[in-house]
Amino acid sequence: MQQAISLANMTINKKNWSAARYALSRARVLADALPANVAVAERERLSAARKRFAARNTPAAKKAKQAKATATKRAGGKKPAPKKSTAKSTVKQPKPAPVRDLGDRFINRAALGYGPTNETR
User: Fold this and answer.
1) Alpha helix (H) ranges present in the chain?
2) Taking burial as the number of CB atoms within 10 A of a residue's CB, which of 17, 72, 86, 108 is the most buried?
C-alpha cells in the first residue's frame, strides 16, 4: 500500500495524470481491503494525494504554480537579449548557393561530341 501511494505521489509530481489515476485507484482498492483501524497514516497520505490529484486543473493550483515559478528565479540568472533597433534595416540579400570546387579537371569535349578542343573557329 505504501508503494502504491508513493507511486501515485510520484506520478502526480510528474503530471502523468493517467498513471496517477491508476495508481490512486490501486491504492484505494488496497485501503478498502484492510480494516478501518489498520494503516491510518497510509489512508491520510492517500487522502492528501487524492486532493492533490483533484486540484490539478483548478485556478488555485495554477496560481500556486505561478507563484512558485517566480519565487525560484535566481537573481544572477541570464540577462535578457539586447533589443533590436526599430529603424529601417537594409533588405538582406539571399546568400548564393555554395559552388562546389571540382579542382583542376579537364573536360574531354571530343568524348562529349563537341569535336576537338584545339581547333579554332
Assistant:
1) 2-13, 17-33, 40-54, 59-71
2) 17
Q: Which three cell numbers stand for residue 112?
A: 562529349
| Region for residue 115 given its phi and psi (left: phi exceeds 0; alpha: psi -120 to 50; beta: otherwise) | left
Mention every residue, 6+ apart, whose C-beta is less than 8 A from residue 4: 23, 26, 27, 30
What is the pTM assigned to this prediction?
0.46
In whole angstroms, give the CA distance from residue 108 to residue 115: 9
Q: What is the pLDDT of residue 73?
A: 58
- Cα separation, 100 vs 80, in Å, equals 40
